[in-house]
């Protein structure tokens, strides 16, 4: 590619808003969305730090896994991303949201418990705990970086 940029994996609109302390925050829906907006702002801060670290010229895509019991509405998260990305390194980035399945396992013998069942191990009767499905994970960042960094 000789001297160009390579790909590496690793205009604002007026929107309804509300005042929170000294900040004006876009309103995401009548029912809420502030939680998702703050999560997206944290995500964008993390991506910006990674982009600076790798001297990226832009971010092309992000993949985020959101667990089904993470307490995050994926549609609101995507809407918050659309609002918050303006003026950031992710302004033109595509966001892929992947659902993470909830999974419970025994605290004693690590046997997986069936979904929708009693929260006791089917093998030994010990209590089970949530082993997956409550996470929000930035799985992938695709960014344009100069070849000779």
What do you see in this structure?
This protein is an alpha+beta fold and 149 residues long. It has one domain: 2-Layer Sandwich (hypothetical protein PF0899 fold), CATH 3.30.2320.80. The chain contains two helices and nine strands; from the N terminus they run βββαβαβββββ. Helix 1 crosses helix 2. The chain is elongated, with a radius of gyration of 20 Å. The relative contact order is 0.25. Residues 1-31 have low confidence and may be disordered.
- Indicate the low-confidence ranges by residue numbers: 1-31
> Separation of termini?
14 Å
Sheet bearing the most strands, described?
4 strands, mixed
The overall number of domains is: 1
Shape: elongated
**Oligomeric grouping of the chains:** single chain
> Widest sheet: strand order?
1-9-4-5
CATH topology: hypothetical protein PF0899 fold
What is the architecture at the second tier of CATH? 2-Layer Sandwich
Mean pLDDT across the residues is: 81
Structural classification: alpha+beta
How many DSSP helices? 2
What is the N-to-C order of secondary-structure elements (H for helix, E for strand)?
EEEHEHEEEEE
Summarize the structure in short:
The chain is 21% helix and 34% strand.
In terms of topology, how is this protein built?
Elements: E1 5-8, E2 17-20, E3 23-26, H1 34-53, E4 58-67, H2 74-84, E5 94-100, E6 103-106, E7 112-113, E8 128-132, E9 136-146
Parallel strand pairs: 4-5
Antiparallel strand pairs: 1-9, 2-3, 4-9, 6-7, 6-8
List the keywords:
149 residues, alpha+beta, hypothetical protein PF0899 fold, 3-stranded antiparallel β-sheet, 2 helices, elongated, disordered N terminus
